[in-house]
TrEMBL record:
Highest taxon above the source species: Bacteria
Transmembrane feature ranges: 34-57, 110-131, 159-181, 193-221, 233-252, 294-311, 323-341, 347-365, 377-395, 407-427, 434-453
Name assigned to this protein: Glycosyl transferase
Record's bilayer topology term: Multi-pass membrane protein
GO biological process: lipopolysaccharide biosynthetic process; response to iron(III) ion
Keywords: Cell membrane, Glycosyltransferase, Membrane, Transferase, Transmembrane, Transmembrane helix
A GO molecular-function descriptor: pentosyltransferase activity
NAD recorded as keyword: no
Cellular compartments annotated: Cell membrane
Residues annotated as domain Glycosyltransferase RgtA/B/C/D-like: 88-246
Pfam family, one: PMT_2
Positions in coiled-coil regions: none
Amino acid sequence: MQRYSGALRFFLYFWARKSNAIQLGININRYRKALYFLALALLAPALLINLGLLTLIDDEALRAWVALEMQLSDNYIAPMLHGDFYYKKPPVYNWMLLGVFSLTGEMDEWSIRIPTVAFLLVYISTIYYFARQHFSRDLAALSALAFLTCGRILFYDSFLGLIDISYSWLTFLSFMLFFHLSEKGRWAQAFGWSYALAAVGFLMKGLPAVVFQGATVLGWLAYRREWYRLFRWPHLLGGLIFLAITGAYYAAYVQYNSLDALAQVLLNESAKRTAGRYPFWFTVLHLLTYPFELLVYHFMPWGLLAVFLLKRGAWAKIWQHRFTAFAMLVFLLNIIVYWTAPKVHPRYVFMLIPLLFMVLLYLYNEYTEEATWQKQVIDMVLLGCCLVLPLAALAPLFLSRLSGTPWLWPKTLLIFALLSGLAYGAWRFREARLLTVAVALLAVRLAFNWFVLPDRDANDFGNDARLDAIRVARAYEGKDLRMFAQSEWQPMTSFQMTLERGAVIPVDYGPIDTSAYYVIDPQAYPSLEYETDGTLQMRHGKKVYRIVRFKAPIPKTAIPEPVEYD
């Protein structure tokens, strides 16, 4: 009887363990579903609340300004600024903006930024779609959420009306189509689609599109040991498609302007950040710090997963999986260009970051069952962050500068409750910790929208400059207003003045007309005599320009070179 009693106790113990495991499994599945639901619920408010609040930064204003002058001049082919030809970027993104302005009927901050949100949503959907071809649903979803919630995207570029997210999506799509179509042996489509997208990318941002396409095609064919495909008709067809698309645009462009200056500026734009333009030690420092700047700063927290690359056998796992091999190869070949180029913006590599994240998340998933030091470090760091966030969420209640925030207590307590629940989930369900972190970051972005953006707007000198630009435009409505010679223009001010006037403010290099009003930088032209009629507050350097009329005509040859000053 004692023997059967022992067997019974063993059976009951085993069944209890099994039941707990089953129950835990059910809880994890339900928890994951709840996380996906919460992520979808947070997505719209996280990306849209206060989207149009902040004054445009210069790069945003520049794109909108080009589009505005296209509309005002009825010239949609040759971009211009202050009525002068603008060469640094081809016009495709400006056409997109004009389409949005036409749909919304507005040319304001929200309309300028909403394309970024739309393309970001399309981008993460594209990441999920292609990752799902090779990974589980959870890993594919996490790949998309990792890109969305990395620091640089979620807390900066996702609420700015810049070209880079749309361009990066286009380039990433080109990578994915080239890989998947080539793997199916459909080489004509692989080359055709990738070169067509590269051509559109070229008409958005210039030569970087050629570099991405060239490095990807050459690298993948070399990896496959299929160099001969460069000389087969499918590749030649792709090249012809690229030339046809870009050639059609430039055939139209020459009807407005010569290609000589355009080609020179496009080449200079691509070369100005290369290592040869900077001191040797500056370049060496960049080579040493760039990986840490990229992974440990701009693309936190997911960049921390790069520690898995230090594990023995990790690289072998990458190369054994066809998709991760392609992703890592394309990342490495293209990141070299930026690794060796000082003073590059993180947004220049947005098309490469999802490739890296997919590889790193794949490694994390592969080592889930192993107690590696890499996994333990990542899990502890992420759990620590989740546990700290609820306390940080209470900070607005104790900051005097936020005391005037509408609905301060309800907003704070809602964020606190969300982050507290997610902190518990991160501790309780280790298997879903990464997904929990992604959703927690969306909740933090919601708090950022409610508390940080209004405070930043209230203390932004750029808003004062914007209002002054509007004031000057109204004061000189109907008058002949021009920019004087080489007085440095600042895009936000020029865009707001042009928008308010509803007319191009031309730059005048001479001869100078005594009947016109000129916006002049007095420090750049201290020797000129004129009558001051008004002032214009500039954003950068807090410079104050003058609105003047000249006492006597000035021939073009008599206009002095501007004086350089700090």
